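Researcher: Please translate sequence to structure tokens.
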Amino acid sequence: MRPSSSTSDLFRPLFGDPIVDSELGDRAWLRAMLDFERALVVVQAHAGIVPDDAARAVVAAIDSAVPDPVSLGGRATASGNPVVPLVRDLTDALPADARAYVHLGATSQDVLDTAASLVAFRALRPILDGLAGVADECERLAVRHRDTLIAGRTLAQQAVPTTFGLKCAGWLVAVDEVRDRLDAVRVERLAVQFGGAAGTLAALGAEGAPLVDLLAEELGLVAPVLPWHTDRTRFAELAGALGSAAGVLAKIAQDVVLLAQTEVGEVEEADGGRSSTMPHKRNPVRAVLVTAATRRVPGLVATQLASMNHEHERAAGAWHAEWETSTELLRLVGGAVHGTRELLARLTVHPDKMRANLDLTGGLPLAENVATRLAPALGRSAAQDLVAEVCRDAVAGGLSLGDALAADARVVEHLSADEIGEALDPSGYVGSAAAFVDRALAAHQRKAER
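Model: Translation complete:
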């Protein structure tokens, strides 16, 4: 059985996580639907709505059911959803005196919305565990490379020095934040659905509303104030949180791809992938696959948001568009989490290459520091203009910035040779990088202790 009917056995291993996938396939959805039907008859029996003997018969039929997703899917075309044939099969398996108590008071959307909440709730557990693992890898790298110098890059060009530890700390904080958001959605927003045909539970009379809380408790989901058949904010928030997580993972993967370029060579995947034709290549395969998975996520988030517009009390089509969309979102994010964790665990860092690349431009990334030191004597704007002119001359003449500064009388009038050398030492111009790393590590530790 495939983990998801919408995925391919050929490509699924590239973009998924086996643990997450096991919570998303046809069997997982059917288990969640049956869990709803089972919980419904249990709480109705406790409330005295369903006779105990009938409830036991329904529970026994559910517990012994082995529904065939292929058969259900084929028959679902007549009703537009698989709940109708599933309920019919359960009913047919019961003695005549118990058949009236299957699915009592519920509608198909109650089953599928609750099942969607259960599927997301269960799939998010390994996703959250995986994100915790990604954060731990970021923490490890941030600690190890707290003071490892690297060129900071803005608009794809070298800017000023920073540390690789600070880059990793930035990853860490972002991962921790999206993990917190996903956890909040899981615990606070994934709710049971029980409203009947049009959100009134009319088939149960005045006894319906109290069952919502009992059903939620039985299933371990949130109890909503009202049935939310046409209020899709819960799944929109889930999609948004998954989209944010994908964006954070995409940023990490992209940084690795850029740092692993041949001309940069500052990191590499320890067991990088081979090319089919070029024996020399070690491709950043995991980073590439994470990038591919996360690029598909925004479109799915957009589909989920576009599906929020449900007309009146029940939607014609918008609801149906959510089922596979939410499943694929969870699958792709789960796969990206899995891939990112493996990527960082196997990342090889080359501090010597980072320092060599920082020195490659002959001190130009320290120009801001020189201008700052000249500013008290010349004023900020004049100092900036002077240093910019010296930088242009250095590039044009093939000189290091240090040599160009030492040859300019306007500079040496205010800065000695030692002061120029000090200004061009990248280790002395990383500002609060170490302090920021420490702040990120402390914040992560507080989260871990909670």
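Researcher: Any highlights?
Model: The longest helix spans residues 108-144.
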